[in-house]
Design brief:
Layout lengths: L5 E2 L1 H5 L5 H7 L9 E4 L1 H9 L6 E4 L17 E2 L8 H5 L5 E5 L5 H9 L3 E5 L5 H15 L2 H23 L6 E7 L6 E3 L4 H9 L2 E2 L6 E3 L2 H7 L3 E6 L8 H11 L7 H5 L2 E3 L11 H24 L1
Parallel strand pairs: 1-6, 2-3, 2-5, 3-4, 5-6, 7-9, 7-11, 11-12
Antiparallel strand pairs: 7-8, 8-10
Length: 305
Amino acid sequence: MGATIIFSASYALANVTSASAEQAVNLPETQQPRLVSAGAGVTELILALAAAPQLVGIDSTSQIPEKLAPAMTQVQRLGYHRMLSAEGIIALNPSHVIGSEVMGPESSLNLLTQANIHVIKLNSATTEQQLMDNIDSLSEIVGKPSSALELKRTLKQQLAQIADKRSQLTSKPKVLFLLLQEGRPARVGGKDTAADLIINLAGGANAADFDSYKSVSGEGILALNPEVILLSHRSEQSMQATAALFDEVTKQIPLVAHTKAGQQQAFINLKPEALIGGLGLSAIDAADTLANTLVQQFLVTQEIK
């Protein structure tokens, strides 16, 4: 086995402890890892593990919190995590490039491997256990076991709180995810998408009755008649108030105003990074926000009835 390994998702999550594997992923104690993170979810976990000083590059989907930005001016912004340039990454002299199973293209990853850079793919988590396993895998690379324990404890508490809110609902309100793209039809997130994961975690039912993402007309959205709408944008936009969201959406898709969500102005803005990397920190935050909305809106409605 060579000095560089491209980890499969099962390898990363299986906690393999063979001597050869340990030698491949652990740098000498005197050398701090230099990380390139290719994916918003992975970057969030690295930052949450207090390993920000080890980052030398992030992909275009990743965000650096404002409070950390002054100390991370040396971090280079790279391309989209599915279309990475090997040359740009190699120039940063990283020890590891870490992303999800959709990181690519494979031709770039192969060049990184040939340059003796450890390329690590983690599964996009869909369960709590997979997320905890990803945290453990990352903590071994960055050498932050105590940070991992604290992060897992915090996330388990948050997930338990979401489960408690979910249990308060006697039915599953219909929730629809809309991805707004300037000059293009709105896209709706169906089954087996990151949006679907967030909706189900919060206790809602995905109003879309199809798989993956599809462009849907205003008439189609009206027919689905969601009770709550989750919104995200391709371009970077600040979080908007509900009234501003209502105006924006109904201007682009007037028929949305006639859905149950439109009549109640039940709109929630979703950070784009919550949709990348499966169950991660932003996705859990989004599910928590949605769960709060569902409990507040629908328990009150039930009491009125």
